[in-house]
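Hey team,

Filing this mostly as a record. A colleague (T.K.) asked me to run one chain through the structure pipeline before their review meeting, and I want the input and output archived in the tracker in case anyone asks later how it was produced. No errors, nothing strange. Just documentation.

Input sequence:
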Amino acid sequence: MPDYLRALIYTLIVTLPALFVAGRVAVPTIDAREFRVWSVCWVATMVAAFLAPSFMVFSLLLVPICIYGNISAKQPLYLFVVLMFAAPCCSVLFGIPGLMHSIVYLDPPRLLVILVLLPVALSLLGDRDNRRLSLMDLLLVGYVVLTALLATRLVGMNDLLRQLASNVLTMVIPYFVFSRAIRSKEDVNRLLLAFVVASMPLATLGVFEVLKGWRVYVTILDRWEIPMLTAYLFRDGMLRASTSAIESIAFGFLCMTGTACLFLLNTGRSDIWRKVAIGIMLCGLLSSLSRGPWLGFALFLAILFGANLKASFKYVALGAAAIMVVLLSSPSLMGRFVNLLPFVGSADRGSESYRSELFERSLMVIQRNPLFGSVNFMKAHELQAMIQGQGIIDIVNTYLQISLEFGLIALALFVAFFGLVTAKLAIMSLRTSAPEANHLGVAALLLAILFTIATTSSVTVIPYIYWTVAGLAVALIRKAPVVVPPPRMRVVGARF
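Output structure:
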């Protein structure tokens, strides 16, 4: 049996039970028919990825799946998130033979932007209120335009068009659609649920990859003839799961986001299926063996629980009980886990020293072109000394990545956008006590994301996740209720 068929069978066996659990969690938020559309589209996309002999064939197979989803789903925009992780997030250069050999890099999320979100975006543009730009929107537009213009330093107009198309598909359309289409607490819950449904099957698959020592989605890349610098990464003798995210830290990032969304999901009830779902998601997060997302999720919990100590007591007690069970059942397993922890454990200390040295050397390079960066920053002798065994320089910090290539002005626009959005949410959380608004929870998720991208470059699914979450955050800000002061009380018959 070919490897890709064997991988498909294992993937179906491992992920279908997780979809069942996701359905049990989903039905209070969406009806059973809507979840059936989501799950059918997810399974069809995943199967198409394994059976397609090339990325082009997969792209053609994705078209009828999205047509079915657009027709059958009540709100098709959530299919973008549901299907985002179903296929391997690898990029293929697309062009028109004889005219332009390279127009834009396409990957499954960008195909979904075109097939699912673009029709929604065109519909939303018809509303004049949606076209009104806030300061947050202007900061994003400034970042998009600046990075596109700076791309012309390579060759010229072709690079401008390529970078602009990349920015529109990765940032503008997902942000615009979700910042305008989310209009109620039900919409917020559906988007949070979409992240949960999208990531839960992969969480179980991540555990399978660690236990089996086999990355199943690599078989698809081999069949599509897409090269990988490192197909397998290990830490402390264990395989780091990656599933469809291709990179283990990107997989940890998506599990971190999915788990946080599960905590924020307001279904109005807490049953055994929700607890099972949390357990699955946490196991998936652990299987990535990625310490950046671990710390990011810890930051999310610290903010969320710190704001409501009484409500968080049951989670703390449950976590303490789980740790005690592990300690009593397998002390060696607990010791191995502690060894993987950042700052405490001794596993892969070279990663920490590499990050520290990269930061120092990158600052030297940035000082030469502080405002607009340089397209040739990789050739700087300071960074050439950072070449790893795979022959690459891994810029494991999104903020450094932006500063080195596009300069501090672009970084300022990027940070100002996310900083302003997070600050507005934090202020709104102090002004309203309505639990369904969940401003603090989304702000905590944004802070966790902003922390985690300081430990990784924006690879594979990572930018699609944080621009979608940014759209959700801005939607909460745009639809904030107007606070009307209570009318003055007047005693009937009294004179003033």
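Quick notes for T.K.: The CA atoms of residues 419 and 447 lie 9 Å apart. The beta strands are 92-96, 100-106, 234-235, 238-239.
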